[in-house]
Write a structure and sequence with these properties.
This protein has helices at 2-13, 30-45, 54-59, 66-75, 81-84, 98-112, 126-149, 167-195, 203-215, 237-265, 277-302, 313-335, 342-359, 367-382; strands spanning 227-228, 234-235. By secondary structure, it is mainly alpha-helical. The structure holds iron/sulfur cluster (2 copies).
Length: 393
């Protein structure tokens, strides 16, 4: 055992390069260097190899340059299993805490891959940025409703949303905000991919990555029993609430797409009956999002603090809270669309959705496309034989 610990200590110390000898692409930020130190220790230990994709990806490397530690950070789903299983976790002198270090690295990576780069600073004050975006969007829709209708109160004939805000205005505004979010996130993912070097993506790789993302395979803890949240017990609750949130969001998005088709393709303008496809998709999606976000909020507040980066807690909670506001206000709008509160509810819902779109590229949402890119990279790498070039690989 002492012999093993000596070897591991040496592995961790070996990553400290001599002055002026830093190889190209070597970790330069303290958190990158810490991740590299830890991964050298893990590479000697390998106890957690079966937990997730991070450890097998780590064993395909002997060194951990900056681009690679960022890649491994996004491959990590922060399930916490390797912290609770680690015999070298604090208070051990090796102080190995993979989930926290990779979470800190993701925080840095979000800023590094932000587009435009200057707006990457918003990650550091994400809760403030999110609050300001929400306040500004809410104020805009409330003032607009007052200007167009003279009041925020009063039933609208037929519960018709477009008698409060013109359809064309909403279509242009939300299309532009969504397109901006897609472009900004897309540029960030492209930069992330480029840093890792070119690699061909086959259909099998895309299918494997899509499957891992859609099922949240790596929130299963490697044995299918789930994650650690507040202690050593395993639970699938996090995976289930995450699924409820994600698929609820996808259903709400589908509701918008179907409604757009009804309007432009079939000439059937909103509002639609409660039994219509867009309304049903929206209601089921909204309920799923509310349940998913409430569950995630509860788990997040109870999670073992050592698993995460305390500096990112406001961003995580702010994002979950905003998703809850989007879903809750959407359901309230559907329930009371014929009532006097409809104009105010509509301003609240539209303000929350606009704030979500505007902050997508500078908040927690960025973890989704970057993680999918990391899963895709992992699927590509797994199909590359003899990656290390060792005789016994
Ligand atoms: S996290 Fe700990 S137990 Fe797991 S591989 Fe690393 S050093 Fe070993
Ligand atoms: S926290 Fe979970 S997903 Fe992340 S490296 Fe550890 S075991 Fe893997």
């Amino acid at each position: 055992m002492q012999q093993l610990e000596r070897l591991m200590r040496e592995a961790g110390e070996a990553v400290a390069p001599a002055a002026g000898m830093r190889p190209v692409g070597a970790p330069s930020e303290p958190v990158e260097a810490e991740a590299s130190r830890m991964l050298h220790i893990c590479n000697a230990c390998r106890y957690c190899e079966g937990f997730c994709a991070v450890f097998p990806a780590m064993t395909r490397r002997l060194e951990f340059p900056a681009a690679d530690v960022h890649y491994l950070a996004h491959l990590c789903h922060n399930c916490g299993a390797c912290l609770h299983a680690c015999q070298y976790a604090p208070p051990h002198e090796f102080a190995v805490n993979v989930p926290r270090t990779l979470a800190q690295l993701r925080g840095q990576s979000y800023r590094r891959h932000a587009w435009p780069r200057a707006l990457g600073a918003l990650y550091a004050r994400n809760a403030l940025a999110l609050s300001l975006a929400l306040a500004a969007a809410l104020a805009m829709f409330l003032l607009l409703a007052l200007a167009l209708r003279g009041s925020l109160w009063g039933a609208v004939a037929g519960g018709n949303f477009y008698r409060v805000f013109p359809h064309a205005l909403l279509a242009w505004l939300f299309s532009a905000a969504f397109a901006y979010a897609v472009v900004a996130l897309g540029v960030g993912v492209a930069r992330f991919w480029r840093e890792l070097g070119p690699d061909a993506i086959g259909a099998a790789c895309a299918a494997e990555a899509a499957g891992a993302a859609a099922t949240l395979r790596y929130l299963g803890g490697g044995h299918g029993e789930g994650c650690n949240n507040e202690d050593d017990r395993y639970s699938l609750a996090r995976r289930r609430f995450h699924h409820a949130t994600f698929y609820g969001f996808a259903l709400c998005f589908a509701a918008t797409v179907v409604a757009t088709f009804y309007d432009y393709g079939l000439g059937l303008p909103a509002p639609y009956a409660y039994t219509s496809l867009p309304t049903l998709l929206g209601i089921v999606g909204g309920v799923s999002m509310v349940l998913g976000t409430l569950g995630q909020l509860r788990l997040r507040l109870r999670r073992e603090p050592l698993q995460g980066d305390p500096a990112q807690a406001p961003m995580d909670l702010g994002f979950i809270g905003l998703l809850l506001l989007v879903a809750g206000s959407g359901l309230a709008l559907a329930a009371w669309r014929a009532g006097a509160a409809m104009p105010a509810l509509m301003a609240l819902h539209l303000g929350a959705v606009l704030a979500l779109f505007l902050t997508m590229p500078y908040g927690k949402f960025a973890h989704a496309p970057l993680r999918v890119a990391a899963l895709l990279r992992n699927a590509v790498e797994r199909r590359q034989p003899r990656r290390l070039g060792l005789a016994d690989e």
